[in-house]
Amino acid sequence: MRARIAIEAARIIAESGVRDYAFAKQKAALRLGISDEAALPKNSEVEEALRSHQRLFQADDQPRQLRRLRETAVEAMRFLRAFEPRLVGAVLDGSADEHSAVCLHLFSDDPDAPMRFLDEHAIPHDTQTRRLRMTPGDHVEFPVLAFAADSTPIDLTIFPLDELRRAPIDRVTGKPMLRADLKVLQALVDGPAYNGT
After folding, report:
1. Quick one: which of 25, 99, 97 has its CA closest to 60?
2. Confidence of residue 195 (pLDDT cuts 50, 70, 90)
3. How confident is the model at residue 194 (pLDDT cuts 50, 70, 90)?
4. CATH 3.30.460.10 residue ranges in the chain?
5. Is the pTM here over 0.85, yes or no?
């Protein structure tokens, strides 16, 4: 049952672009008529099923989309270099698709500085907040700026400068989130493969 739910949840994520694993698992269980909460797979199982789905059904498109998103991320990181940008999420781990945003962590002791920077460059953006788990029992809210570069969504989470060396907990692995600076990302873009890191 866990494998069936993971496969269906991966299909939901791949087709809808929703990266809310809990929602995808619950929707998959409902579609399959499974009501046992204990049968829900771990996020890592859904992530593995998503990668299998992409290899089977998106073998041509997904690597092309990933390359485009990584190239967009390079440009965004160059533009935002004053804020020590780090790439995170699906564009970094190689599971990004046509629905994915370029997600960057920015660092500034003035949380309004990135917003002013976007305003100075006449870039329209939305503001939000995001709760991230920084330690197993510690959730913290951070400001978020969202805008589009051409048709690609860019998602910026703003951290204090001293959080540069402390990444939030990844919802899939339960370990500190992987982050990449521009040099690492450029090596991925220049490398021979675009379907993973």
Report:
1. 97
2. very low
3. very low
4. 62-190
5. no
CATH topology of domain 62-190: Beta Polymerase; domain 2 (3.30.460)
Percentage of the chain surpassing pLDDT 90?
Answer: 52
Which amino acid would we find at residue 195?
A: N
In the predicted model, is pLDDT for residue 129 greater than 90?
yes
Number of residues in the chain: 197
- Quote the tokens at residue 27: 């929707």
